[in-house]
């Protein structure tokens, strides 16, 4: 019986790795310094390295169903602590007041790590056409998939009160990207760096069948094909490869017309 995966592992080691050995060794010795956090849908048709032309060490990747960003404080719940004085209470030390941290949001942890430790200059949120996660917002999820059901709640604000026509799905996919950008701005370490011009946000919708990313332009209030877009960023864009050079620019808030209904 052929073990296809094992064959591929051997091929990587024998054929591919030698071409990049020096690069990988450098990345081990110097550590990783990726400039970009890429938050993308898990869909197998999105290949971030192909899309961006990136190589080893350049993208810090987070992928999940539908490329959602969990709310920054979404893991705080009422603790119901009955201590008269809260001296020494862990929930207060964790900054949660009378609430405590619950849950394990890998995506939220990755955002914090990428911004605080890796000091990325760009965060991309990449949705795409024909997204099964977005389509699932309009249908039923099997009861057994309770984690998936809870996860999809993070996209419900983007859904429209209409039948899921191709146009409605496309619009929902785009609205979801905008929603996730708004959630990103609720992360204090993201907001402060964006406002200081040290970090830029990029809302992308990848149209698989066209092989083209459409970039959300907050000033135009729409997604613009990369072939005609002025830049790859969502707000006023500067090349942040040398962020220390200038700290004047501000990120524009997402236009109300594009904000999902509350
Ligand atoms: Zn998807």
UniProtKB/TrEMBL annotation:
<protein>
    <recommendedName>
        <fullName>Carbonic anhydrase</fullName>
        <ecNumber>4.2.1.1</ecNumber>
    </recommendedName>
</protein>
<dbReference type="Pfam" id="PF00484">
    <property type="entry name" value="Pro_CA"/>
</dbReference>
<dbReference type="InterPro" id="IPR001765">
    <property type="entry name" value="Carbonic_anhydrase"/>
</dbReference>
<keyword id="KW-0479">Metal-binding</keyword>
<keyword id="KW-0456">Lyase</keyword>
<dbReference type="InterPro" id="IPR015892">
    <property type="entry name" value="Carbonic_anhydrase_CS"/>
</dbReference>
<dbReference type="GO" id="GO:0004089">
    <property type="term" value="F:carbonate dehydratase activity"/>
</dbReference>
<comment type="function">
    <text>Reversible hydration of carbon dioxide.</text>
</comment>
<dbReference type="InterPro" id="IPR036874">
    <property type="entry name" value="Carbonic_anhydrase_sf"/>
</dbReference>
<comment type="similarity">
    <text>Belongs to the beta-class carbonic anhydrase family.</text>
</comment>
<dbReference type="InterPro" id="IPR045066">
    <property type="entry name" value="Beta_CA_cladeB"/>
</dbReference>
<keyword id="KW-0862">Zinc</keyword>
